[in-house]
Amino acid sequence: MKASGRNTEVKRLKTRVRLILAASVIAPYFFFGCSGRRSEPLRGALDVSDPKVGHGQMVFMDKCDKCHPGGDAGLGPSLNNKPLPGFMVGFQARHGLGAMPAFAEDELPKGDLDDVVAYLKALRKNG
Ligand code: HEC
């Protein structure tokens, strides 16, 4: 009798731990997911006729999009809703402050980085 009572208590404790774990996994999605979405379909399609913007978009998709999806917030903050000067984007990409990885010159050449900045500026102006 006593042993089964302890078993139920252990089960209850395990459920509680699982709930807390689940909540801590889900919570960031609410936190980041609700912030500053400005991309399609809320905004129109981006004009990528400028080759710098078009190329910057490709580089962005390759290197940055997984954490800043379409310039929105993902694992990283949104980039399309604030007036980040080009040099700050460059500095952040080179030095990776906080939880972001750094991109060295051989991984992200200066020309590519300049085009990413042009793409981000176009994104911000869009709409
Ligand atoms: C592995 C995920 C990841 C990748 C890949 C990534 N970032 Fe980030 N980025 C982050 C995180 C996380 C932050 C927030 C850093 C902090 O302050 O802790 C951030 C912050 C930034 C900021 C500063 C935003 C602000 O509001 O201050 C800029 C600019 C930025 N990233 C640009 C880029 C660019 C450009 C690329 C691609 C070359 C890129 N990121 C790739 C995760 C990432």
Number of strands: 0
Average pLDDT: 86
According to CATH, the fold-level topology of the largest domain is Cytochrome Bc1 Complex, Chain D, domain 2
Number of domains: 2
Task: Note the topology.
Elements (H helix, E strand, L loop, with lengths): L1 H32 L17 H13 L22 H10 L14 H16 L2
The structure holds heme C (HEC).
Heme C binds next to helix 3.
Detailed description of the structure:
- With 127 residues, the protein is mainly alpha-helical.
- It folds into two domains: 1-34; 51-125, Cytochrome c-like domain (Cytochrome Bc1 Complex, Chain D, domain 2).
- It is 56% helix and 0% strand.
- It has helices at residues 2-33, 51-63, 86-95, 110-125.
- The longest helix has 32 residues, at 2-33.
- The chain is elongated and about 75 Å long.
- It binds heme C (HEC).
- Heme C binds at residues 63-64, 66-68, 75-77, 79, 82, 84, 89, 92-93, 97-101, 103, 108, 116.
TL;DR?
The protein is mostly helical.
List keywords for this structure.
mainly alpha; 4 helices; binds heme C; single chain
